[in-house]
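Comment thread on ticket #2218

A.B. wrote:
> Attaching the input chain for the structure job we discussed in standup.
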Amino acid sequence: MIDSYGVTDRGLRRQLNQDRVFVSDGAVGSLPNLYIVADGMGGHNAGELASAICVRVIEDELKSLKGLAPEAALEAAIKAANMAIWQQAQTREGCKGMGTTVVACTCIGDDMLVANVGDSRAYICSDVIQQVSVDHSLVEEMVQMGGLERAKARNHPDKNIITRAVGAMSEIEVDLFRVSIEEGDTIMLCSDGMTNMVDDETIKEIINSGGTLKERAHSLVNKANDNGGRDNISVVLIVPFAEG
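C.D. wrote:
> Ran it. Output below, let me know if you need it in another format.
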């Protein structure tokens, strides 16, 4: 049995919530379950539109795709969302340059499949917390090239500059990760409004604190707001091997 809960919050500083979450413990197309966090960007309500299009197109595409392996299906669905947002941005007034991050996950037996574009993240949390996805950001590139220490990346002034987004260009590269999951693991998908406000160790403590998934998800959001809430905050928690 799989259990999950998703929440999105405007935060304390933003007028709009441009994040979007999707949670389905049941099958979506050929995938046995599906969870998505999308963090939109763009002026006025363009970011909100981009994240909404992203989630809707991924769901619709997966329902229409038949016979593809999970990796291929998820990648194709995100690329379809990219084209849909790109086309809207070219033709709809006020939407030029809009885009969104996306992190999506499905649990298949003892594996978790993650797809991401941008800097929304996927984690596995047990006794330790492990980031599965890799940010597509200027700061992450600096860390990977050895030009910046990981400990200093968190507060770098350019940390919000992303290098890849859904809808920003006509074609997109999607990163895919397949990792093992075990009983006792909790998966978290989140936007950077969460991870910019709360460090990994505190996230782990809250996830492992007990209570329902809803209580823990809202505790994470509350902690992000307590620490400043500078951005929209989205969290999806998934227990892949929940007790019945």
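A.B. wrote:
> Thanks. Noting for the ticket: The chain is about 30% helix and 25% strand.
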